[in-house]
């Protein structure tokens, strides 16, 4: 289940992906299989060859692509998510969803008190 994004943000992601750009959207998310992850970033592009080539740069396997027409995408989670968002200069998403290591450290310290 996805939450924490607006319809406008989703539409902007779809437009970029449709224009064969690598598009990023991060949202809050819950899945029992990944109890330590509260967000997911979708890195999508209509051009599957371009998406595969981009993914190879980050060690992402083509079989990890979710082939959901018209928006095939990789789901990025955890440390790989943070690393790729930083490399792609998606700082607004890192800040908004508290994905920075320093932010996560502050949160975990707060929980201990």
- Fraction of residues in helices? 40-55%
How many helices? The count is 5
**Overall structural domain count:** 1
Average pLDDT for all residues: 88
Would you count the extended β strands for me?
Answer: 4
Say what oligomer this is: single chain
Strand order of the largest sheet: 1-2-3-4
Mass-distribution shape: globular
Task: Quote the distance from N terminus to C terminus.
Answer: 30 Å
- Report the sheet-strand fraction: 15-25%
Radius of gyration: 14 Å
Order of SSEs: EHEEHEHHH
Describe this protein's structure.
The protein is globular. Strands 1-2-3-4 form a four-stranded antiparallel sheet. By secondary structure, it is α+β, with helices and mostly antiparallel strands. The longest helix has 12 residues, at 7-18. The chain has one domain (2-112). It contains five helices and four strands; from the N terminus they run βαββαβααα. 44% of the residues lie in helices and 17% in strands.
